[in-house]
Design goal:
By secondary structure, the chain is an alpha+beta fold. The strands form four sheets. The chain has an eight-stranded mixed beta sheet, sandwiched between helices. The protein has a six-stranded mixed beta sheet with strand order 9-2-1-13-20-19, with helices on one face. The protein has a three-stranded antiparallel beta sheet with strand order 3-8-4. Strand 15 and strand 16 form a beta hairpin. It has two domains: 161 residues, FAD/NAD(P)-binding domain (3-Layer(bba) Sandwich), CATH 3.50.50.60; 159 residues, D-Amino Acid Oxidase, subunit A, domain 2 (D-Amino Acid Oxidase, Chain A, domain 2), CATH 3.30.9. Helix 1 runs parallel beside helix 5 and helix 2 packs across helix 8. The structure holds flavin-adenine dinucleotide. This is N-methyltryptophan oxidase. Its cofactor is FAD.
Length: 377
């Protein structure tokens, strides 16, 4: 085991889990977060996140997701918080779409507790939705929802209990490998570490401008809709869902606070500067999601009751950037989760700790290799 002194830069979704995993191994770790812990100004806010295992983004994620689920449960055991609820998930879309092919491939290649339904069977079991005759529906029993703010809070709090230190409201201005160490400057103060892992989410390119071409911060708009049939949208009646339709990809989560249902677009609304994001929402940005609600949810009103604005770092291939920065052996990066990183956060924390401890991990993360976008200059 390394006796290194490690810095984790950005204690949001991935950083909090990395700090927890490092502290669990007894590795001395210091976190830097520019805001407070579990703030909602970045990629972790908005009340809920989907967890799913039959994976639209590719079956290569399934082993990571299985391990992530175990670690979500471990974090719940260690902290006593209820973070992940597996109430099932519907993956819906045309059979010949790439994303539904990935879902089917995931259940064919791995042992996932699931059922395949045709549109008619799905309609009988889940009448809240309107299905199209050519839709295929996979009911993933290993899917559900996560409470994101509480998850970040729980991981950071647990890391501190295990000995990690967190500098809150401490913005890292620069990192530099010098003479066998890494120099970190935060709020104008100098620190020195043996290794550094950067988990800065939408701010990643501020520390690695080289990635600007392939990693952009994008605006995400979340929407919650009212209904007078709320009992049909409680977690036991309404599995989370991800749906591909002709002109929109969207998802939904049951009512958690008991007054409205979250149905959100997967589409993003342009590149943003994370330090200067405008949080107003134009009617035109709601057009497609309102139309989808109107078309597919007859019991929901198609004008949202709650709207919120967030962001995430998106890469050009929508896979994250995870590993050592090329030509650097003390600086690691984990960013660019492209709108689907929350469910993976605990396993990413384990991978981060593996990289710090051994320089490698047993998980196949070849599709996330930073070298596809960076030369390390
Ligand atoms: C609205 C919304 C819905 C989503 N839905 C889902 C979903 O259903 N399922 C799913 O799996 N994923 C989902 N995602 C994606 C997922 O939430 C993100 O991929 C994930 O949260 C990214 O985590 P991160 O750690 O990279 O970024 P963040 O959580 O944003 O963490 C980065 C942290 O670094 C800090 N930071 C940045 N720069 C510095 C600096 N220089 N110094 C100090 N601190 C710094 C930031 O303040 C922040 O706290 C969704 C994302 C959004 C926004």
């Amino acid at each position: 085991m390394t006796s290194n002194n490690v810095a984790v830069i950005g204690i949001g979704t991935i950083g909090s889990m990395t700090l927890w995993q490092l502290a669990r191994r007894g590795i001395k770790a210091v976190g830097f977060e520019q805001f407070g812990i579990a703030h909602d100004r970045s990629a972790a806010g908005g009340e809920s996140r989907m967890f799913r295992t039959a994976y639209m983004e590719g079956p290569e994620y399934v082993p990571l997701l299985k391990q992530s689920r175990e670690l979500w449960e471990a974090l719940e055991d260690e902290t006593g918080y209820n973070l992940l609820t597996l109430n099932g998930g519907l993956m819906i879309g045309p059979k010949d779409s790439t994303r539904m092919k990935n879902v089917i491939q995931s259940v064919n290649d791995f042992d996932i507790d699931s059922e395949i339904l045709d549109a008619e069977q799905a309609h009988i079991r889940f009448p809240q939705h309107k299905f199209k005759p050519d839709d295929i529906v996979l009911l993933d029993h290993e899917a559900g929802y996560i409470r994101p703010e509480l998850a970040v809070f729980a991981a950071a709090e647990r890391a501190e209990q295990l000995g990690a230190v967190i500098h809150r409201h401490a913005k890292v201005d620069s990192i530099e490998e010098v003479d066998g160490a890494v120099k970190v400057v935060a709020n104008g103060k100098n620190y020195e570490f043996d290794q550094v892992i950067v988990t800065a989410g939408p701010w990643t390119t501020k520390l690695f401008p080289e990635l600007k071409q392939n990693l952009k911060s994008r605006k995400i708009v979340m929407t919650w809709y009212p209904t007078d049939k709320l009992s049909n949208y409680k977690p036991d009646a309404f599995p989370v869902f991800g749906r591909i339709s002709d002109d929109i990809q969207f998802f939904g989560i049951p009512t958690l606070e008991g007054t409205m249902v979250k149905i959100g677009s997967v589409d993003t609304f342009g590149e943003v500067d994370p330090d200067n994001i405008l949080r107003d929402v134009k009617l035109s940005e709601l057009k497609q999601i309102n139309k989808a609600v109107q078309n597919f949810f007859p019991e929901l009103r198609s004008d949202p009751m709650r709207i919120s604005v967030h962001m995430d770092g998106y890469t050009t291939d929508e896979h994250a950037v995870v590993g050592a920065v090329p030509k650097h052996n003390k600086t690691f990066i984990m960013g660019g989760y492209s709108g689907h990183g929350f469910k993976l956060a605990p396993v990413m924390g384990e991978i981060g700790a593996d990289l710090i401890e051994d320089g490698r991990t047993k998980f196949d993360i070849s599709h996330l290799d930073p070298a596809r976008f960076m030369k390390g200059e």
